[in-house]
Fold this sequence. Notes:
By secondary structure, the chain is mainly alpha-helical. The protein is 44% helix and 5% strand.
Amino acid sequence: MYSEWASLSAQITANSCGAQCFSVLNKFPASAGREVVVSVVKQLGTNLGITQNAEPSHLVKDEEVKWCMDVICFGLSLPLQEHETIKDCVNVYCEWLTALHPQPRISVPKPICEDANLYARQIINHFHNLFVPRQGESADTIKRQAVLCHRVLRTLQQTAQISQLMDRQTWDTLLLFLLAINEILLAPPTVKDDVGDQLCERVLSVLFEVWLLACVRSFPSPSMWKTLQESCAMWRHRVALVDQWNRVNLALTARLLEFSYGPAFPQLKNADEDGQLIPIGMSNDCVAQTWYRFLRMIGNPTALCSPHIISKSSHFVQWALTHEKGAETHQHPCLQQLPQIFLNAMKGISSQVDAFLGLSKTSLIGLTGGGARNAISSSSTTNAGSTGTGSGEGSAPAPAPTTPTSTSGPPSASSSINSLPLTSMGAGVELAVARPKCNSILHVFHEWLFEAAHIGGDTWRQNRKKQACEASKRPSSMIMEHRKGSISLSQPNSLNDPQSLPPTLTIDKYESGRAEAIGTLCKIFCAKKTGEEILPVYLARFYMALQQCLKITESRECDETLASILLHSSDLFRLDLDGINVLLPGFIAALEIVLPDKDLKLKTQSMVFNRTELRRSAINILLSIMVLPLHYQTLPIRDLTCETSEKMFTFIQLKSRLMNILMNALQVETDAQNTHMLLGGLLLCVQDAVTFEETELGGGNANLSHNSSGVQHHDANLLSSACSERSASLVSAGTASLGGQTTATMGAGSGSIRDTASAHDYPSLTISDDMSFEFGQELEGVTTYDNAHALFVRATYLVCHRLISSWKTDLNVSLAALELLSGLARLHIRETDALECKRAVKWICDYICYQCSRPPPAHSKDLHSTIVAAFQCTAAWLMQHPYLLQDKDCLQTVLEVVELGISGTKSQSKGTDIPKFKDEKELKPASMRVRDAAENLLTIILEQVGYFPSECGPESISSLLDELALMKHCNSMVPAAAASSEQAIAKFKYFVTENSTILALLEEPLGNDQDPQPTVTLLIRGPFGRHAWTMQLRHLPRSKSGIKYHAINPGRPIPMNDVTQRLDSEQKNFPDGVDKVQPCVADYSIPTIEQMREQYGTAVIRELESLLENQSIHEKLAWAEADTSADSLSHAQECVPPTVCHEFHAARLFLSHFGFLGFETRNPQNPAEALGNPPQRPLIVLDTKSAAFAADLDRLDKLSARTHDSVYVFYVKSGQTSAQQIIANMGEESSASHDPHFASMLQTLGWPVQVSEHSGWTGFAHNSWSLKGTPEEQLKSTANELNYNGSQRVLYWADVSSEIAFVVPTTWNLRYNSDTCDSGSISSTDQIGSSNVWTRGEADSAAGLAKSKSRNLSLELDTNRRDVKEPVPPTRRKGNVTKPTLLAQAPAKIFLVWLESYEDYLNFPLEDLLAYTRTGEELQTQQLPRATDCHVIFVHSLLSGLLRVKLQGPPGRMSFATPLVDGMVLSRRVVGNLVRQTALNISRRRRLDNDNYQPPHVRRRLKVQDIVQKYKMDLSEADLLAHLFQRAI
């Protein structure tokens, strides 16, 4: 930089020799000179005003002043024993220097005041004598000398700051003086506690600070800068040099950033005293010039790694020559500080790089301490609010999104760099938006950083040998290097044997600095923006450096370099860096050292770093490369250093190693957040493998993925971790082929049951790309170990095992594990073994049992949340594997857990115990939430397993029939009258049973039924939906009742003509021989009539006779009347069959047959059944005459039995920051320019449905859950295929317990939302039940809030009924469930944002886009969503075709759900599935975290109870029976 300029080194050398500082008194004996000095200086000192009042000086002529100065010059060189005299000399000169001040002291001689600059230059030169080290002085006298030197330095610095008179010559003299005293003090080898050691830091700081001042007042010439650079090269063995250099550089960099990037750029925070280093008047151009010159001042820092170069000066040579035992110059003890000096220099450079990247940090004030501190510490901390845009963009700084790994703000300014918290360059670090390009930073620092990164590597050793070889061939005159010569490593270093270095200076001692350098390079390359180009030469050198640093030693230890690379390379594989994949084998080898082992093997125990952060950063790297093997398949990975193809890997060969790293890392991980990330990565791997085998391999080739021998061998040890050698041997062995040699085929078995059960007409939700033909060959052998089935088995076993053993006490990890198990349950793996699935369900049930059995102090909201999640996970497994319920053991296990959840205990604690019946148990569930979840699982088992989706499709688990639809098919209904639901409801009878189920009974047969059987049609509205049934009472099965058993005219039988003769005979009451029998005493026990007359009198007998006579007369009259009537036998007509009965009172029959009319008798002994209490009737009659009944019934139908969520999808083109621009992207004219992968992703999110025909959740409260066929406005179809804004079409997905709508908002959504808000068309009480976060209704909201918190932890049981045999139900709070209550948590909004440019996530206008995402529920909840509560899933398409994920959300404990993890890289084939699962899991977690949330079936039950309270009829038993005999209108 200054090669054409002359150096002033000779002048400094002259000053050092004292040529200009000789006094005439040197010609005389020392004692004579001392006496002159003592007498003269003492007299001069008395006039200074120190001990007495100052007086004007008597020196009025130049000659007088010069003579006195000659004396003082000699006095400054006196031995230190003359301390008082020297002190007086210093005082005199310091006073005289005030001549340069605006107000000189009164004691300054007049000639000096008149020509201050001339005399000041002489005084400054004379001061040199004071700083010359005296030999053989004691420590006390050295300290006294140091005190005087400090006084001089302080005076010179103060004079330079306040003087307005100094000319350029004086400035140059001052700078040269400072260079000279630094040279004389610092150039010699360091000797502890000598004057140079004591003054080192002070003289350097004054030199640099005065130099900065000179840059403003009198900018130094290039010769002066060259001299400074050459001088600094001679002081590099001093620790203080690099410390002061860092200090000045950071202060200049802070100013440089201010005017280069504007106020929005993150400020570089330095210590207060460092902020004052830069003079106030320094212009921007001057700052830039000074910054670059100071940066280059000490030359290439890598020279610090070569003691031969540092020790070339004559001072070291002199030490070596005078050493008693003889030594080389590079063996001086002071050089043992070089590794620490090198580390400090690298940290300083790293700090500057951080500043340019926008990382808020603290100045390196603490680097001046002594002792080697080998520490891996990042030179930056993260400030969550430090991101912003540059001044050129003219926009305000955007707040940094909060992520789960965000760190706190910067520490105090006085903290050392080694105390700064360690932060990996992962998801927790936000770079400045307006940061310079990577090329710009590398142009400045690349030479030093690349050379430092190679220190000690193979390339470095080869270069050293080459240079030594070249140097040995040259003449000796070529090797001799000038004292101030080049300091670059490119020159021959020395002919000395490197083996002669002391053990403390071997190249491995410089590893800390090398680690800092390679970590800084990683930070620079990780700062690449979307679309930014980096010069190929930089990429090549970076890759070479990384490959050298990633080489693993035989001991397989983690050194500082490896740790630094992993800590700062989290984003390296996510940035579209050209050719980055050549480093994949090296990074995988590094991950195999760090992640699989519980105790990390460190190369040196002095390494200080956060192991959790190191593992987290390694996991981030792992998550970004997991999908590469299946994405690139057979593509070879070239070796950078080897040109032959023997070492060449293909991507697919690395898959086994990646899986082993992931599995083993998950097995030993102890940090909750790291475990969360690994679980997300595990589901990604299994999902990707399954989808790959479905789409890429196809039906035929998929068979090779299950080799029977391979799987059996593997199942023996599911957690075995195959090393890379085994994986490689599997690839080369070729144990399987693409032919028909495999045994597993598609056919009958557990797999076929799944295929049949799920064979619903769903659109395919996967993307299929063409597979290369050669890929089948690469799968040979590997697939037996890490195919989808093997991964499924390993993942299930590992996660279940750790869930039971280690994770059960951590809420977030438990939830993530259960989410992963739910995701695994949904995978369609053809070879799924029923035994594996059964084992998984058994372990989940064991987990529930363990959690429920924990002691009462452990029962908290978090614990119950994990139990609820486990019940949901069990439901997912049973729904996807219905054949499990055919297994007796599995069925018993599941039902026992359901019983445990509902009642709190099991009927049989052990298999040998006597079962305990329901009426003998007390109902004590763990909490109401747990009971609700268990009830839900029980209903799913009984109603849905094996039957979902029903004929209605997945969009509804309820019947699509209601009263109006049924009456349209009823014979008695006039078509014109079937328009209103009130008229249809009038035809039904409504009853409520168990206070939770409404029965609507229609006694008329439907139009398609001709049989006059007792027929009843039921609409059952319960907590879990609406169901329609038709029942008939038949005495014969349908198969035998085809022939009609009655005819219209059966016909008369033919009469018989022969009339038989009838013989008249007398009727006898007794047999003929009765008179011949001898009577006995008993025969006389019945008295005769005569005896009766005698006993009772004739009057009674006469009355009896008259009765008999009257009866005889009446009978004769009746016979006579009958003979004359038309119905008499003489007027007989043909017999006609009776008419068919249509009045069956079918409702009464149904209720009676099903036990609803069993009125139980009271038990007077039971207080609960005393006469004062109303009977516990099984049936409640509803009064349907009220006009509001139909509306309430409709509201109940609008309460879905499943949870519902909405995800809003946005497309952000590069550089867009306003909501209007983003919304306009979905217009018809703009959609053509979209990334084609965006449309593909939309198709995998859900099924496109027409809103007008859809009966599920549509994303809008007003038209969701409407019956098909209801007349709605038919809009014309749109030509835009991506139009899923909810006006006509929407993307929809549902399972048995949840619904989710994916809405792509357009300008229509804003108009619709404003119309809805203005008109208030949706009543605030209409849809409260359908809000995302349902609150438990309370009559008294103030008291209710307090109760609702305790309610989750305990049960409020009725203590008065403990002695009843019936189970005591927990009391559930009742209240007006339609009453709007304030939410404890705002409804969650989930955004899915496709980014063309990744950096645009920082400026995403979340607040403005909320207006486009209204569902109509905000009016009911009385709380609008806030931007801080929103979850955003950003997806950025990489050039490789993969997708990068960025998550942003509120900082809650349970905010971030799996499987997506911040920073994960996905394959396109799985993005839709994983985004959908993540959105569902986010919503589930928010519901679990909300104290006031009620499950859908509880909402419906409370709504039924509300209807009962409003419309029940208090009927007695007689009134109820009478009501049953009355027909509906």
